[in-house]
Amino acid sequence: MYISKVPLNMARPDTIRFISSPYKVHAAVEQSFSPLAKRAGDDCRILWRLDSMPKAIKTLWLYVVSPDKPDFTHVVEQAGWTDSKRWQTKSYLPLLDSLEQGQVWSFRIKANPVRKVFKDQGQSPREGIVGTVQGHVTAEQQKRWMLSRTAAHGFSVRQSQNGEPALIVSQSTKESFSRGQSTVTLATAFFDGLLEITDVVEFRKVLCSGIGRAKSFGCGLLTIVKPAV
């Protein structure tokens, strides 16, 4: 497994067009691997996320976790920096091998929090709504969605000093983009928090295979760092 990050130059018009569609980014990420490269398995798959850093005003980062080593030359040419700033790729195995039950990490994930509709709860009947998948739109709904998935993935969210889960929901939005002749609409949000590993095997899996739906479109990649002291 590998983890990579590619700096994208937000001062370039081509970059703005590139990031405007998760489908375009998905295609570019797929092209970073040879046709014979492993793309998905029982415990791993290609995951990616667009993310920013507070001090990098004109830079957006493309994070990618993958079973095989990528080549992002075409991404740099299309949306990156033309100087020496290129991508960084390193083995994910040292981190995965260092994980232990009880460890505490800061985490970040962009996810697609959704629910399957079993009963129409609207004020007026809506034909065809039952059985569909709908996005959670309020921060409280999204927070409950995230908390309901932690145990199965080998971690729990720690409590903050006020007794509430140490979990912040931000950048909640609806993304719409073209995919062929159709339009895709996704409800997405970022989740930042503090976690504790409860099951090392399951937690390794989630770092390599992600959480939730829309993984091809930039959702599901969970990343961790040592918490600030």
UniProtKB/TrEMBL annotation:
Gene3D superfamilies reported in the protein's UniProt record: Crispr-associated protein, domain 1, Crispr-associated protein, domain 2
Residues in the signal sequence: none
InterPro entries the UniProt entry points to: CRISPR-assoc_prot_Cse3
Pfam families per the UniProt record, alphabetical: CRISPR_assoc
Highest taxon of the lineage: Bacteria
Protein known as: CRISPR-associated protein, Cse3 family
Organism: Coriobacterium glomerans (strain ATCC 49209 / DSM 20642 / JCM 10262 / PW2)
